[in-house]
Amino acid sequence: MLRIVSLNLNGIRSAERKGFLPWMAKHKPDMLCVQEIKAQHADMTAEMLAPAGYHGHFHYAEKKGYSGVGLYSRQKPSAVQIGFGVKEFDDEGRYVRADFDTSSNKLSVISVYLPSGSSGDERQQAKFRFMEKFYPHLKKLKAGGREVVVCGDWNIAHKEIDLKNWRGNRKNSGFLPEEREWLTNVFDELQWVDVFRRIDDRPEQYTWWSNRGQAYAKNVGWRIDYHIATPGIAATAKRVAIYKDEKFSDHAPLTIDYDYTL
């Protein structure tokens, strides 16, 4: 069984103070994709860089205290790619890919953090530019002959079932018609799979909650964190879980166990 976790940390130092690393040691993922680490290399402790039993690889944003992604794995990757070749977004630290090649299988796991457009039109336009550039990248990945799992905070709730107050958010970033259509095309045209929804079709399964009001307590949330995978490995998914017993950030860890052997 291959356990892969995705988690937006909203600051790795903050999450560490809230018990993220002990939880990771207890939960024992084979791979853990993290987003929004909000740190530079100099800010990272030895344990953050390489927790016991793990290899860590990171894409730091040029801007301090902003964005940044990472990928932890038990197995040492055969290759690592930092960034996906678009300078505007590579400068923001949004992409880490790790390849795991064995005699029997070729798997790539990617930690990605799509821009948020919620702060205003300038960032929304940046988000649209990211989507425009990332789509052909996803198409190329899909055609590459490898199994791929793209984990991360995609900052888009795909369908009405994926957020509590969908009626009031139809004109808000994260649930705009253009964003939802783009994600539909990723699934329908490019034939990627929303792995969580392949297993769990229940409503009110959210991964992010606003810090305002009682959103978390009342489960007024959004499902914006995904494992989006190629069909082969997606078909092996056996168990999905959103962990809410502890709170490390405004997102919850999304765990999927795959019946897949490297």
Folded structure, characterized:
By secondary structure, this protein is of the alpha+beta class. It has a single domain (2-258), classed as 4-Layer Sandwich (Deoxyribonuclease I, Chain A). The chain has 8 helices and 14 strands. The model has no long low-confidence stretch (mean pLDDT 97).
List the helices and strands and how they pair.
Elements: E1 2-8, H1 12-17, H2 20-27, E2 31-35, H3 46-49, E3 55-59, E4 69-73, E5 79-82, H4 87-90, E6 95-101, E7 106-113, H5 121-142, E8 147-153, H6 177-188, E9 193-194, H7 195-199, E10 208-209, E11 221-222, E12 225-229, H8 231-234, E13 237-242, E14 254-258
Parallel strand pairs: 1-2, 7-8
Antiparallel strand pairs: 1-14, 2-4, 3-4, 5-6, 6-7, 8-12, 9-12, 10-11, 13-14
